Structure formats: C-alpha cells, structure tokens
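tool=predict chain=A
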Amino acid sequence: MTDTVPDLEEARESKLRQALAALPPVERRIEDGLLHETRRFRGLTREQAIRYLCHLGGTQRDAHTVTGDDWEARLSTRKVSVGPSYRLTEVEISWIG
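tool=predict ok
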C-alpha cells in the first residue's frame, strides 16, 4: 500500500507540531479571536528567520515584518550573553493569526 498525499502532509504537520512543542512559546494568548504567539530563537539571524517564514508562504513587507494568508510575523533581535564571554543573536518572532 502506498502513502497518499494527505497522509504525507499529515505526517509533516505532526513533525512540525512536535518540533514547535519542543520549543515552548514565550507568550501565547487569544485576543479578539486571533492567536498571538511569541517565540525566541538563538543562533540565527533575522534574515535567516525571514527567509524561513517566506518559505512557509509569507511575503516580506519590510525589514521586520512577514505576512502570510492569515498571519503576520514581526521580528526583533537582540544580543544575549551565553556564559561569561560569548554572545549570541536572539531573534524574537511574534505571530498573529
């Protein structure tokens, strides 16, 4: 028996949910019927995060915003200390949708 396209899509969605569950959000709430979620990622640049969001179907609106069909993501960056002498870029992504 061969896998059907919906089965493959379901498997991909399941893997994505598992990956996101491993990185819990900084904030998650529902406001005016829309999900608002914020996550932080270390060790990547804002540009890399924007490319990733564009590969998910988004369109870059400006240097800090990517929009999709039913969502919008705003990105910000900051340097965070990791130990006494090492600093990483932390990208914060706030999704609405």
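Strands lie at 27-31, 34-42, 59-62, 65-67, 72-81, 87-96. The chain is about 30% helix and 40% strand.
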